[in-house]
Amino acid sequence: xxxxxRLFQIIQILRSTKSPITGRELAHELEISLSTLYRxxxxxxxxxxxxxxxxxxxYVLDGGYDMPPLMLTADELEAAALGAAWVASEADPxxxxxxxxxxxxxxxxxxxxxxxxxxxxxxxxIQTRVMVFERFDSALLRYAIRERYKLQLIYTDxxxxxxxxxAWPLLIAFLDRTRYLVGWCETKNDxxxxxxxxxxxxxxxxxxxxxRRATLLKGWDEATAS
Length: 226
Prior knowledge:
SH3 type barrels; Arc Repressor Mutant, subunit A; 44% helix; five-stranded antiparallel sheet
């Protein structure tokens, strides 16, 4: 690992935890010697990265510190580009456009020597089947998920029966190249997975569902795990 990438990795490790990390733990995770770690810490301090360290306790990154968004390694850039390429091929039109715009911004903002990484990764074939047709604007669905608005769905199940549902949208899931709306169904009083291709109509209601989305997601995770 190059030193620049290692310095980024140290910051990322410290950002990912709230408790102090000892120099020995950091060195072990990075697979470097303690002396190398101390030199890296001295370099980060010289760059005015707000890391504090106390003997016998460990290192902590100031909670108010934030890295510039494009301080990414080559591997991270390729992961971002591949992810964006997958979204561009699998998601609804508005999100696909956003994914393509993301790749364009990465390509123009990163250093010249790393641009081929992004361009090559984003051009690799991802799609393996025809896009699913959806009868609603997926941007509205994502808005409802973010803002916790209830939805009215006209939904056709696998037996061909069409029902009118009130659902609390939690997330969009992908399984076996099929998109699902995961939510709490007021009609069935339970969690449900709605295939988006079977949604005949979708309306965002003006009422927000009660409770926290994180709590509902935890309940869904526990229900599906059992």
